[in-house]
Each structure stands twice: as structure tokens, then as C-alpha cells.
Amino acid sequence: MNDTAAPLHTSARSADASRVTAWSLIKPYWVSEERWSAIGLLLLVIALNMAIVYINVRLNAWNREFYDALAAKNWNVFIHSMLEFSYLAFAYIFIVTTRIWFRQLLEIRWRTWLTTRFVERWLSDHAFYRIERDRLADNPDQRISDDLESLASTTLALSLDLLSTVVTLFSFVFILWHIAGALTFTVSGTVVTIPGYMVWAAALYALAGSFVIQRFGKPLVAINYQKQRVEANFRFFLVRVRENAEQIALYGGADAERKQARTIFQTIYDNWRGIMTYTKRLTIVNAVYGQLANIFPFFVAAPRYFSGAYPIGTLFQISDAFGTVSESFSWFINSFSTLAGWRATVNRLREFVRSIDEQHTREALSPATEHGGINRHLTDTQSLRTDRLVLALPDGTVLARVGEIGIDPGARVLVRGASGSGKSTLLRALAGLWPFGDGSIDIPVSAKLLFVPQVSYIPIGPLHAALAYPSQATAFTDDACRAALRMVKLDDYVDRLDEDAHWTRRLSPGEQQRLAFARVLLQKPDFVFLDEATSALDAPTERHVYEALLRELPGTAIVSVAHRDSLDVYHRDTILITREQVAAAA
Ligand SMILES: Nc1ncnc2c1ncn2[C@@H]1O[C@H](COP(=O)(O)OP(=O)(O)OP(=O)(O)O)[C@@H](O)[C@H]1O
Question: Which residues form the ABC transmembrane type-1 domain (predicted)?
């Protein structure tokens, strides 16, 4: 539907041009109105990270002093080392705790910002509706809750760790280079000297490990992506069973649901087996790498130690520095699965943003909109009018030729037609949800339109809020709500406005339809469209609610879709919708 009358094909072209990158997901927060507090927190966390690196450097030097004191049986230096260790350890504990607190604070602030923006975009311009109708992206709920949480936390973790690692690496390479010295040996009579040989050994050791891990761990990216999807599908299935518990129970559908649960869970199982396979391989490589790391530095440093180049304290200091350097080099190795999960998250969010950006593309590329689709204009008139309106399906099949209709204020119009002829589709087009077809619709710009489907959405919460929906609960006084409830014969609920409940489960379908009528009475729209809104009511109650509507809202145009003749008396005009193929076949 083309509310602004901009041609559909223009939005399709601009959507094609949009490219979503990981950076375009990360950057907006850091240049937003919250940027100064965000950057301030980030700098604080970085400073605390640097303080930890500094303490690690001090602890490394402490190794030499401590082990040399042990070897020399020097009590005074030993005690001094112990004291030094105590205050270094205390500072370490304090800084690590403060750092995690500020990092988590930054995380939740970033996530809040992201979530607000994503929810806003998802709920704007009917994106949430198009995404479901055209199946543009699966499980938006998971992307907004899990993926955004993971984007904020993992991006921070990875980037802050990377920075600490680089600083640690430089500090310890410097230490290792100086304390371990050069290795000199003779090959076929030629004297070969390798300066800072322990650093090269650590780098080679880590790079070899990285290479092997890369090879073994790469498929984890795709498997992790798949994992989030299958988990979300299963959760969605369970929620649907929960939401439709009564219908399933009445149909005796537990067996069917059990089979379905098994089938969907099988995808989780298969995915998990894939994860197990690759985790096993990664664990073997990591374990070999980790175990070797314990002895490798001693092995490499041994020749110079045995030649008497340095005392035992320095050997331990070298071993500690070597461990830190190779650990820093191998940061990529240890972070591989985190990185894989992060990439999967980013890909899912990119796909989601693209589906929002390109939500109009599917409509624009549909054969049903090649002449511009249904154009909906807001005009300065009193009446709602259609001009050469044709309703079609997304594949271009013409559903019904509605042509010209006019609905004046206070009109009473009945929409009739066989099941599947396109009556609800006509209401969707009038509501701006259905662009497929041709022609135009003029809507009075200042008119309030209200659409009441056969099954109304009722939010979980206090009855007052459920009645006021989609307005805020405060929009209507308690007295107004009570009066509306009485008018639709919901007297039992008059004193329960503050009661919190899952009203869709609590109220019978007929009561839910009466609640929807009470909403109409409260909202007082200029045009109300009732799509089989009394299908669950008995004849006297149907009469009662329609009479209340006509009496209370005399100026409101009432358009009802109905199969039953009982509503004829409340309407003056009829629109007959005839399905095109049915007519042709006849
Ligand atoms: N998103 C969609 N994609 C393809 N076809 C659709 C879609 N939505 C509706 N239809 C088809 O459009 C036709 C008209 O549907 P609509 O709901 O307007 O019928 P209706 O006249 O209101 O029927 P009923 O009286 O049974 O409620 C149906 O055949 C339906 O299957």
C-alpha cells in the first residue's frame, strides 16, 4: 500500500542500494546522543584494562625476585616478595571487579539503545506485518532479544580483549626479548645468532596453533548461525502450543503436537551433533596446544639456562612471559568460537535490517503492483472513496474488481460475498495493509478509522488497558469503561477494571467480541469496519450490541462484513464482492 503516493518501484530501487555491514550495526550508538557517556565508560574500562596489564607486568618481575629468594634462601627478600604480592593481588582483585561492573553497565546501556531503535523500526510503517505476511525474516523476536544482547556484549568483549591483548603482547615481548637474550649456535662451522629467540618461538608456536585451529573451527560459524535459528523455531513452536492450548486439547491434538515437537527438535539434535563434532576437534587441538604450552618455554629456554646464562628466578620469569606472549598471540585461537558466534549474530541482524529496509521490495516486485499497486491518499474530504479499485493476490491473480465505492459519514454498509472472495482483503486495502492490485483509495485526512477483526487482539494486563487498546489506559476514565462494558452486556466485568489477566484465555470468544464492541464505543471512530465481528454472538446479543452502536455513534460510518442475514436491518447499502475466477468459471 502506497500511503504517500510515492511510486512503489522507487522504494524498491533505494532498498536495493542499501548495504548492511557489521560496522553499520555497531557505529550508530557511538555517534548517537549517548555518545559521550558511552565513550566515557569505554575509556574507563580501557584504563582499567591497562591497569591490569600493568599489574601483570609487575607480577612477572615478581617471579624473578621470588624464585631467586627461594633459591638463595633469603628470608628478608622472601617476606618482601610476599608483601609485594599481597598488595598487587589486592589491587588486581579490586580493578577486575570494577572493570566488569563498568563493562556490564556499558553493555546494558548499548543494548537498551539498540533495542529501542530496533523495536521502533520493526513496529514502524507496518514492517512487523510485512515481514510476517511476506515471510521476509524468521523469528524477529529472537533477533531483537537474543541477537542484540549478544551484539552488545560480544562486540565489547572481543574489542576490549583485543586491545588488552595487543598491549599485553607489546609489554611482554619487550620483557621476553630483554631477559631471554639471544640464542647462539653453530651450523656447519657458521655461528648463528637469533636475537630475542624466545619471542620468535612464542610467535611461531601461537601462529602454528592458530593455523590448525582455523582449519578445524571454521565450519562452526555456519553451525552457530543455524543453531540460533533452530532454537528459535523450537521455542516459537512451544509458544504456539501454549497460546493455543485449549484448541489443541479440544482437537485431541497432543499426539500431532508431540510428533511435530519431535520433528522440530530433531533439527536441534542434528545441529548439536555438528557442534559436538567440531567442538571435539577444537578441544583436542586446544588441549594439545595448552598442555604443550606448560613445558614448551622451559624446553626452549633450557639451553641458555644450563649454560648458566641466567638464574632460576629469571627462568621462571621467562616461562611466565613466554606463556603470556604465546597466549596473546593465540588470542585469536581462544576467541575462535566467540568470534564464530559473533559473526552468526551479526549475519542474523544484517538479514533482519535488510528485511526491514527492503520490506517494500517484495511488494514492488510483485506482478500485482506493476502498475503502481493500490494507492491510498489522505484527502481533504468527508467521505471515503475508491476509484477503479482492483484487489489482487501477491502473484498478480485478480481477486475482485471492487471499482468505485463511496462511504459517507454515518453510512451503514454491509459487505457481502462468498467465503474467500476478498472481503477481508478489501478491509486490509482500506487499512493500508494490502498494496496488491490497482486503483486508488481516498481517505478523509482527519477521520479516525477503526478496524475490528473477527478475533481481536487483547493485550495481557489490566482489563482497563485491554479495553482502551490501542490507546493508553489513561485515555478513558473508569466510568466511561464501565458504561461501555454495560452497553455490551459485560456487566460481570464492570468492577474488575484493574484485574490483570490473559484475557484471550479468560474470556469466551463471544465475550471477546463484545469487548471489541466496547472498544468501538469508547474510541468513537468516524469509520468503523467490522469484519464478522459478531460471528460468535447469539442473535439477541448481536442485536443488542448493534443497537448500542447505532444509538451511541449515530455519526459513525459502519461497514460490516457478514455472512448472516441478521445484520441486514442495521445497514442501508450493500457492497457485493465477487471473486474474479469464480465469476469467470460461472
Ligand atoms: N498473504 C496472502 N497470500 C496469498 N493469498 C492470500 C493472502 N491473504 C489472503 N489470501 C487469499 O485471498 C483470498 C481472499 O481472502 P479474504 O480473507 O479476503 O476472503 P474473505 O472473503 O474475507 O473470506 P471469508 O468470508 O472466508 O472470511 C483467499 O483465497 C485467501 O486465501
Answer: 43-341
